[in-house]
Amino acid sequence: MSDSRLWDDVDDYFTTQLAPQDDVLDAAVRDSEGAGLPSIAITAPQGKLLQLLAQIQGARNILELGTLGGYSTIWLARALPADGRLVSLEYDPRHAEVATRNIARAGLEQVVEVRVGPALESLPKLADENPAPFDLVFIDADKGNNPHYVEWALKLTREGSLIVVDNVVRGGRVADATSTAPDVRGTRTAIELIGGHPRLSGTAIQTVGGKGYDGFALARVLA
After folding, report:
1. Which of 4, 42, 67, 211 could form a disulfide with 88 if both were Cys (CB 3.0 to 4.6 A apart)?
2. Cα→Cα distances 143→47, 114, 173, 181, 185, Å
C-alpha cells in the first residue's frame, strides 16, 4: 500500500470515529466541488481540531483569513456561543458566494460575516472598526502574505489569543532556504516572525493525511 493510500485510510478512520461528517458539511463539500472551487479545504479531522481549539479558548470572536467554500468556517462557527462573531475574509467573490450559501444552510449566518476583497485591504478597515479582540485567528489565505497576516493578527488579538497558520510545510519546501517561491518565502518569514517575536510563543507540526504532506503553525499571544 502506498503512503498516500495509507494516510487516506487513517484519515477516514479518524473521521468516522472522531469527526463524523453531517449533511451540512457534506453539502458544503459537494457544493464547493460543484462550483469548481479548488480542492484545498481542510480535512474533517483538521476542522475538528480547529473547533476544539476554539472551544478550549472559550472563543467569542474568531477571525478567518481565507473562506474558500466555508467548510472550515462552519467548523469554527459551531464552536461559538449564540452571541459570538466570526469574520471571514475572502478574496474571490465567487468563493464568497458559495461560502455564504453553505454558511446559511448551516444556520450560522447570524454569527458569520464574509467580507470580500484582498485581505490586506479588508484588515485595516476591520481594525478601524475597533472590534473586540479576536480570541482565535485562522490564517489560510495566499501564503506569500503570511507574515503580513501574522502581524495583523497580533494587532487584532489579546494576551492569550491563538493564531493558527495552515499549510506551512509546503510539501517540505519550507526547509529550502534558497527557494525564491513566494509561498515558501512568505511561510518561512512568518515562521521566523513567530519564532523571534517577543509577543508570540509558537510551534509548527508536520502532518500527513487526506491532503498529503503538510502541517500548521500554532502561536499564543503573550502580554
Report:
1. 67
2. 19, 20, 13, 10, 9
Residue 18 to residue 45: CA distance in whole angstroms: 7
Rg of the chain on CA atoms, in Å? 17
The owner of cell 472551544 is 55
Cβ-Cβ contacts under 8 Å for 15 (sequence gap 6 or more): 21, 43, 44, 45
| Other beta carbons within 10 Å of 93 | 10
> Could you write out the DSSP letters of every residue in 36-76?
T--S-PPPHHHHHHHHHHHHHHT-SEEEEE--TTSHHHHHH
Percent of the chain with pLDDT over 90: 96
- Give the number of other Cβ atoms within 10 Å of residue 117's Cβ: 14
| pLDDT tens-digit series, residues 71-91 | 999 999 999 999 999 999 999
Q: Where does residue 35 rank: exposed (0-12), middle (13-18), buried (19+ CB within 10 A)?
A: middle
- How many helices (DSSP H) and strands (DSSP E) are in the chain? 8, 7
pTM for the structure as a whole? 0.97
Residue 153 CA: distances (Å) to CA of 27, 74, 117, 123? 30, 20, 17, 9
The tens digit of pLDDT for each residue in 1-12 reads: 678 899 999 999
